[in-house]
């Protein structure tokens, strides 16, 4: 297969088709972890940043990016792991937030990051139940099924659900 | 390992001596997160309740993530052929530079909470300062890790209070845990000669500057937990210079088993 030199725009389009392996309704662009794309002739560099330091999905995401680009005849891809500036949920797209809620995961409530460690036993962030839309919910644990999520339960429909923590 | 390391900082601007000092120090930080992360991972499937089992596994994962960033940087600083895996899996106990606190056994949940609180209170306040390091790579790792350390400190602080101001048994157990572990807490903020030399360059924070905030938080938590702050305890040191308690060897025997048995094996 003879490849034309890819354009940055094309790369961004292809990246929209790579999904987060742990939250498959989100593309990696929705999640806000792609920090830059550089095309230099046939050499493509994609910079990604982890949501959490230990995010085990990073290697899979890197592989998925390579495979997606390879399928378009773009073999020369470097993936940069960029730590700074550190990822924040502010970078999650509005479309991503809507997809999350429709999938059953409450999207981050902005401005509620746990920066105030001295505020022990503070009030839980008010999170809307993604299933019955009630605001009567409570935090079960700050630590949920993955590093980026907390575990909540709805007081009305009683369903447990994941909340994508605000991380700023 | 599929992901290339971050763009390199100007490593060449360091003298060979400074680079070697920094290599040893970054290893010390990496060893610390690795050993505590490994200890916490031993709880996986054994936690007192499911939510706390998950919490400890999550904290372990954060620490292992931090550790990988640090070992990768250490490998670059060393500039030899060693990789992050070689540094984590193929060194001897005396070469590990983690403070003694983090290698102490899990014991019961109270022991683990006390160990975690003493560490988190240092780790969080330390990373807040390290974020401002002129070493861009360390600053970036700290910027990332401090957000996670904030969750850890909140978790361990709240559990200190629940257990200390809880039932007679939970209080007794936590009190016993502190009686055993407090002696290892001083090492975290007692600089070794190597650390003093790096502090003098301004690359790493002076621990004396962390103490007021650490003490304020600790006093607040102990007061809420209705626990007296231990006084006049002789502080054990040596881990940061490779003199460990008996426990580290057993951890490494398990941690390194696969690489020692099948050298060069990859995930």
TrEMBL record, chain A:
The PaaD zinc beta ribbon domain, residue ranges: 118-165
Matching Pfam families: FeS_assembly_P, Zn_ribbon_PaaD
Domain MIP18 family-like, chain residue ranges per copy: 8-66
PANTHER family linked: 1,2-PHENYLACETYL-COA EPOXIDASE, SUBUNIT D-RELATED, FE-S PROTEIN MATURATION AUXILIARY FACTOR YITW
Protein name: Phenylacetate-CoA oxygenase subunit PaaJ
Encoding gene per record: paaJ
From TrEMBL, chain B:
Keyword Oxidoreductase recorded: yes
EC number: 1.14.13.149
EC primary class: oxidoreductase
Any one GO molecular-function label of the UniProt entry: phenylacetyl-CoA 1,2-epoxidase activity
Keyword Disulfide bond: no
Gene: paaC
InterPro entries: Aromatic_CoA_ox/epox, Ferritin-like, Ferritin-like_SF, PaaA_PaaC, PaaC
Keyword set, alphabetical order: Oxidoreductase
Top-level taxon of the source organism: Bacteria
SUPFAM superfamilies noted in UniProt: Ferritin-like
Matching Pfam families: PaaA_PaaC (PF05138)
Name of the protein in question: Phenylacetate-CoA oxygenase subunit PaaC
Species this chain originates from: Hymenobacter nitidus
